[in-house]
Specification:
2 domains; five-stranded parallel beta sheet; 11 strands; FAD-dependent oxidoreductase; Elongation Factor Tu (Ef-tu), domain 3; FAD-bd_FR_type; six-stranded antiparallel beta sheet; flavoprotein; alpha/beta; FAD
């Protein structure tokens, strides 16, 4: 396993609770849209065994051509040891990344794609949307639906409807409107539905989609193959 140590080169305050950490790209480090990585803080591998409290599984919100590895995360006032340390890091501090992989690259099968997310889960989809806007080959259209009760919606510069590019974005701040809209989107019996959020959020979305006749094969989750069976049971 290769561990890449790299430096924070910029910290963006997206909202009062959400920050994006832009990391320098180590030589030979590559990734594709929808990737996640293990993001670790200094000292995580200092002992005989890795200190798992200093490691988190994070989505990469940027694309390689942006020349930075973007890690977007919510840090609340009351937070874990990991988030507390992260909150106090500054530009120039070192962090580690390793075990990078994508479970949800864009499927280019000439179908409609629906991106369903909750809160900061939208960060996972940022790279998919950017990749689609660069190259829309074999995708009919993309629609993003995000729920965030805080109303502090993320990445509104990218997640804005562009009819000429067959891209639309929708934000809602309550569960009733959100799940009504999921039902409406599920009227497309041939689309691909990507879901990112907490496990409870994923389960609820799958229940709604399955009730509307969407099959497990049409549902994409940011989960390893050995985890998928917990969610997608025929």
């Amino acid at each position: 396993m290769q561990i890449y140590w790299t430096k924070i080169n910029k910290i963006i305050e997206e909202t009062p609770e959400v920050k994006t950490y832009l990391l320098d790209c180590p030589k030979d480090f590559t990734w594709e849209e929808g990737s996640h990585t293990h993001f670790a803080l200094k000292g995580f591998n200092a002992g005989d065994k890795p200190n798992r409290s200093l490691v988190r599984h994070m989505s990469i919100s940027s694309l390689p051509d942006e020349d930075a590895i973007g890690i977007t995360t919510r840090i609340k006032e009351q937070c874990s040891e990991f988030k507390s340390i992260l909150r106090n890091l500054e530009v120039g501090n070192e962090v580690a990344i390793f075990k990078t992989h994508s479970n949800i690259p864009l499927k280019r099968e000439s179908k409609n794609v629906y991106l369903l997310s909750s809160g900061v889960g939208l960060a996972t989809f940022r790279s998919l949307v950017l990749e689609y806007l660069k190259r829309a080959d074999n995708i009919n259209q993309i629609h993003s639906l995000n729920i965030d009760s805080s109303k502090a919606f993320l990445f509104t510069d990218i997640f804005k409807s562009a009819p000429e590019k067959n891209f639309s974005a929708q934000f809602v701040d309550n569960r009733k409107d959100y799940y009504e809209e999921v039902k409406n989107l599920a009227a497309d019996k041939d689309g691909h539905f990507y879901i990112v959020g907490s496990d409870d959020f994923i389960v609820q979305n799958i229940e709604v989609l399955r009730e509307q006749g969407i099959t497990p094969e049409q549902i994409m989750l940011d989960k390893r193959e050995n985890e998928l069976s917990k969610f997608l049971i025929n």
